[in-house]
From TrEMBL:
InterPro entries linked: TPR-like_helical_dom_sf, TPR_2, TPR_rpt
PANTHER family tied to this protein: CELL DIVISION CYCLE 16,23,27, CELL DIVISION CYCLE PROTEIN 27 HOMOLOG
Cleavable signal peptide: 1-19
TPR repeat ranges per the UniProt record: 360-393, 433-466, 502-535
Top-level taxonomy: Bacteria, Pseudomonadati, Pseudomonadota, Alphaproteobacteria, Hyphomicrobiales
The protein's name in its UniProt record: Tetratricopeptide repeat protein
C-alpha cells in the first residue's frame, strides 16, 4: 500500500481524527461471534466452499461478511434462503448487505416484507424514511424516526432525519427549533447547528441561518468532535455570505476553516471561486439533500476501525437520497480502498460530478488506487496528466511521488519533488515541509547524502520538531557513524513526540543496536514490537538484538515470527540464513559488520511500511 500519511495529505478528507464515541446502531452486527467467524474463515481457507446445505451457505455468507465481501455475502445469503425461505434472520442480514452494496431498492423491498423485529428497528426505520422522502412523502416520513432512542448516535441521527422530513413538509421553522432544543452529549451541537442553519437557509430565512452558522463556528474547540461537519458549516456560511454579496465576510469565514484544516482542497476551491466572482451552487437544494448530508456527516464522524459496516450503511443511504453527493462518494471510495476493494473505489471516484470541489481529490485517489491494484504504469500516466493539468496543485506531486516511491524509482522521485518546489517558488510555508522531506528520502536512497541532508534540514526549518523528519535525519547520521550524539538526541525527541509510533520506537532501538548498546536496543525494540506486533522488520530487529545479548532461543522465535508476517524477498532470505546460522561474531566496530546497514535504512523510513 502507499504511504498512509501521504495518501491522507492527498485525500484531504482523511486528515481528520474523529472524537465521537462509536455505539453501533441495531441491526448491523452479524449473528456469528468473532470466534465462529475466525473458525469459519480458517476452514474456508483450507477447502473450497461447497453450498449443499443451509449451514454451508450460512457459514460462507458469514465468512464473506467478515471479509467485507458484500457481493459474495449477498449471493450466499440468497442461497441459504433457497434452503430455508422463511428464515427472517437471514432475510434481515441479506437486507443489510444489500443496503451496504448500494442496492437500496432491493433492500427496501425486503423491509416491506419483514415483521417488526426490534433487533433491526434502526436500519428498517431509516430505510423506510429514505424511501418515503425519495417519493416526497415527507409528512409520513416524519412520523417514523425514534427520537427517544437510548443510543446517542441513533437519537441524534433520527432527530436530524426527522427535522429534514419536517422541512420537506413545509415545517422548516419547527424543525429548526427542534434541533436547537435537542439535549445530549457535548458533541451534539456541531451537528444540530449545521443542520438547523441549513434548514433555515433552505426555508429562505437567511438572517436566522447566518446567525446559527456564525454561532456554530465561534468556538473552534468543538471542531475536534467532527471537523468535517465544522468545516461544512464554515463553507455553508461563506457561500451564504457570498451569495448575499458580502465577499469580504465570506473570505473571512473561510479563513476560520483554514485555521482548523489548512490546505483542505474544498476550502481552497471555494476561496478561488469567491475571489474570481464565480457562481456558488447551493449544496442543499431540497430536504432529500439535507438528509443525505446528515447521514454523510454522521458516517464520516464515526469512520474508524471497527465501524466499517455502520459507515458504509450511512454513506450508501446518503447516496440513495443524493446519488451525486461528492463528499459521500469520496469517503465511500476511501473506505473501499481501506478494505482492499480498489476496483469498486475507482468506480465511485469516477462518479464525482465535473465541477465538484471534490473532483480533483477523486482523480488523485483514483491514481493511487490504480497503483494499489498493481497498475503502476497507468497510475503514473494518470497522475502525470494531473500535474500537467494544474502544475500548482502540490497534492498531485505528492500522489505521483508516492507511486514513484512504491516503485523505488528514486531518481524520478527526486525530479518530481524538485519540480514541486520550483512550482511553489521561494515563498514556502510551514506546510511545505513534506516536499523537502520526500526529496530528502529520494536523495538518501540515491546515496546522494549532501543533497539529502540539505533537504531534511530544510524540512525541519519549515516544521521544527517534526517527528518523522527528526527520526529520519537522526537515524541517517547514526547509520553513517556521524553526528552520533545529535542523532540520538533527535531520535529520542521524535519518540517523545510520538511515543506510540512503533516505527519511530523501532528506529530508536535499531540506533542503539547500531551503536552496540544491545541491552538498550532490546528494551526499545520490545516496546516497538508491542506497538507493531505484525511488522516483519521490527520483529527481525528484535531477534538480532536478542541474539547479541545471548537470548538465542528468543532470537529464533522473533525471526520465525518475522517470517510468518510475510517479509519482502530480500529480508526473508536474510532471516532464513540467520535461523540456520545465527549472526556472525561481533567485530568490535559498529555492527555494520553484521550486514544490517541496509535493513536499518528500511527501519528508519517508518511510513514506507505502513
Amino acid at each position: 500500500m502507499q504511504q498512509k500519511w501521504i495518501r491522507q495529505l492527498v485525500a484531504g478528507t482523511a486528515l481528520f481524527a474523529f472524537a465521537l464515541p462509536f455505539v453501533p446502531p441495531s441491526g448491523l452486527v452479524s449473528e456469528a461471534s468473532a470466534t465462529e467467524v475466525a473458525d469459519t474463515k480458517e476452514a474456508a481457507a483450507d477447502r473450497p466452499v461447497e453450498i449443499n446445505s443451509f449451514s454451508a451457505a450460512f457459514l460462507a455468507a458469514q465468512t464473506a461478511d467478515a471479509d467485507y465481501d458484500t457481493r459474495s455475502a449477498i449471493e450466499f445469503y440468497r442461497r441459504a434462503l433457497d434452503f430455508d425461505p422463511t428464515n427472517d434472520r437471514i432475510r434481515e442480514r441479506l437486507m443489510v448487505d444489500l443496503f451496504m452494496a448500494g442496492d437500496f431498492d432491493e433492500g427496501v423491498a425486503i423491509v416491506r416484507e419483514l415483521e417488526g423485529d426490534p433487533a433491526i428497528n434502526q436500519v428498517r426505520d431509516l430505510a423506510q424514511v429514505i424511501d418515503l422522502m425519495r417519493d416526497g412523502e415527507y409528512e409520513t416520513a416524519s412520523d417514523i424516526p425514534d427520537v427517544e432512542s437510548t443510543n446517542p448516535i441513533d437519537r441524534l441521527l433520527n432527530t436530524l432525519i426527522k427535522a429534514w422530513a419536517d422541512a420537506g413538509a413545509g415545517k422548516g421553522e419547527e424543525a429548526v427549533k427542534t434541533l436547537q432544543a435537542l439535549d445530549g452529549p457535548p458533541w451534539y451541537p456541531v451537528f444540530t447547528m449545521f443542520n438547523a442553519g441549513a434548514i433555515a437557509e433552505l426555508d429562505g430565512d437567511f438572517s436566522t441561518a447566518r446567525q446559527i452558522f456564525q454561532d456554530a463556528i465561534v468556538d473552534k474547540s468543538i471542531a475536534g468532535a467532527a471537523p468535517d461537519t465544522f468545516v461544512r458549516t464554515v463553507m455553508a456560511l461563506a457561500a451564504l455570505e457570498a451569495r448575499q454579496g458580502n465577499v469580504r465576510a465570506a473570505l473571512d469565514t473561510l479563513a476560520t476553516g483554514e485555521d482548523v484544516v489548512p490546505n483542505y482542497a474544498p476550502l481552497a476551491a471555494m476561496r478561488q471561486r469567491i475571489e474570481g466572482g464565480g457562481p456558488l451552487p447551493v449544496e442543499i437544494e431540497n430536504a432529500r439533500d439535507g438528509a443525505a448530508t446528515a447521514l454523510y456527516s454522521l458516517g464520516a464522524a464515526v469512520n474508524r476501525d471497527g465501524a466499517e459496516e455502520t459507515v458504509m450503511l450511512y454513506l450508501q443511504f446518503a447516496r440513495a437520497l443524493d446519488p451525486t453527493n461528492a463528499f459521500a462518494l469520496v469517503t465511500l471510495g476511501n473506505l473501499k480502498e481501506k478494505l482492499n476493494q480498489q476496483a469498486e473505489a475507482i468506480e465511485l471516484y469516477k462518479e464525482i460530478p465535473e465541477g465538484s470541489p471534490m473532483r480533483r481529490i477523486s482523480e488523485l485517489q483514483l491514481g493511487l488506487a490504480l497503483s494499489d491494484m498493481g497498475d503502476h504504469e497507468e497510475a503514473r500516466e494518470h497522475l502525470k496528466a494531473l500535474i500537467e493539468e494544474d502544475p500548482k496543485d502540490i497534492r498531485s506531486y505528492l500522489a505521483y511521488g508516492s507511486v514513484l516511491s512504491e516503485d523505488k524509482a528514486y531518481k524520478e522521485m527526486a525530479e518530481n519533488y524538485e519540480a514541486a518546489l520550483a512550482a511553489i517558488g521561494p515563498a514556502q510555508s510551514s506546510n511545505d515541509w513534506n516536499l523537502h522531506f520526500q526529496l530528502g528520502i529520494a536523495y538518501e536512497r540515491l546515496k546522494e547524502w549532501p543533497k539529502a541532508e540539505k533537504a531534511l534540514k530544510r524540512a525541519l526549518e519549515l516544521q521544527p520538531n517534526q517527528p518523522q523528519v527528526m527520526n529520519y535525519l537522526g537515524y541517517s547520521w547514526i547509520d553513517m557513524n556521524m553526528n552520533l550524539d545529535e542523532g540520538m538526541d533527535m531520535i529520542r525527541a521524535a519518540v517523545d513526540l510520538r511515543p506510540n509510533d512503533g516505527y519511530i520506537v523501532d528506529s530508536l532501538g535499531w540506533a542503539y543496536y547500531r551503536l552496540g548498546q544491545y541491552e538498550d536496543a532490546v528494551r526499545e525494540l520490545e516496546r516497538a514490537v508491542e506497538l507493531k506486533p505484525a511488522d516483519p522488520t521490527i520483529n527481525d530487529h528484535l531477534g538480532d538484538a536478542y541474539w547479541r545479548v545471548g537470548r538465542k532461543t528468543e532470537a529464533g522465535f522473533q525471526w520465525n515470527r518475522s517470517l510468518i508476517n510475510d517479509p519482502e524477498a530480500d529480508l526473508k532470505a536474510e532471516i532464513e540464513k540467520k535461523i540456520a546460522d545465527g549472526l556472525p561474531e561481533k567485530s568490535g566496530e559498529l555492527p555494520a559488520a553484521d550486514n544490517q546497514s541496509e535493513k536499518g535504512g528500511d527501519a528508519k523510513t517508518a511510513d514506507d511500511r505502513s
